[in-house]
Write a structure and sequence with these properties.
Elements lengths: L2 E9 L3 H8 L11 E11 L5 E9 L19 E10 L4 E8 L7 E10 L7 E10 L6 H30 L3 H36 L9
Antiparallel strand pairs: 1-7, 2-3, 3-4, 4-5, 5-6, 6-7
Length: about 220
């Protein structure tokens, strides 16, 4: 039995910008688990489609219960192949990804289709599908459930990474990070000032209470 995932979302950016950002996703602060990316093959076909194959190296921390399925000397990194087709005529980008190793423990296959939106101008529609399976007898179902939950978490990070790349194309990423940093520092300063004021009020109130004179016998 295979776990299936599917969702669709609208990206508020033109298809051209999305495709450009796709090639510039890594590195980004939301995908620190992606260690390397290398282009293995690239070709422009007679009908002007761009075919690419990339090799990605990723790492994900395993839950404690999954350690038993990994021999002590086995690599924890996962090698991912990504095939992509850019079709400028039909305004679509299709990607296929799958893991090369650890397939007995878990196999994850993903397909993403980015299309220019026909309903919303300057928008791109993304349809993401995934198939998750496991070959561990007796444990395949919980492993697939875990894989599905982790995939959902990672696809949210992937979207944030793509949005970061889109912002970076327009020179907005650094400004946004700087603005958020200044905002956080300002809020922390306000909280510290408020806490200091409250403490000062408490001390002043305590000092204003008349002290009962000491009695000596």
């Amino acid at each position: 039995m295979v776990k299936y995932f599917c969702n669709s979302t609208d990206i508020r950016s033109t298809w051209d910008h999305v495709v450009s950002a796709f090639w510039q996703r890594y590195p980004n602060p939301f995908s620190t688990h992606v260690l390397t990316e290398d282009v293995v093959y690239r070709e422009v076909t007679a009908d002007q489609r761009l075919l690419s194959r990339r090799l990605l190296t990723k790492t994900n921390r395993l839950p404690r219960w999954a350690e038993r399925f990994f021999p002590s000397g086995m690599a924890r990194c996962v090698y991912i192949l990504e095939d992509s087709i850019v079709d400028p005529v039909n305004r679509s980008l299709t990607t296929y990804t799958w893991n090369l190793n650890h397939k007995t423990l878990m196999s994850v296959e993903e397909r993403c289709i980015f299309r220019e939106s026909a309903e919303q101008p300057a928008s791109t529609q993304l349809k993401r599908e995934a198939w998750i399976s496991s070959g561990i007898y007796g444990f395949s179902r919980p492993i697939q459930e875990f894989g599905l939950a982790r995939f959902k978490t990672n696809q949210v990070k992937a979207m944030k990474g793509l949005e970061y790349a889109l912002s970076n194309l327009h020179g907005e990423a650094r400004q946004r990070l700087l603005r958020d940093t200044v905002k956080d520092a300002s809020e922390k300063a306000k909280e510290a000032a408020f806490a200091a004021t409250e403490k000062a009020k408490t001390l002043a109130s305590a000092a204003s209470v008349p002290q009962k004179p000491q009695q000596y016998v």
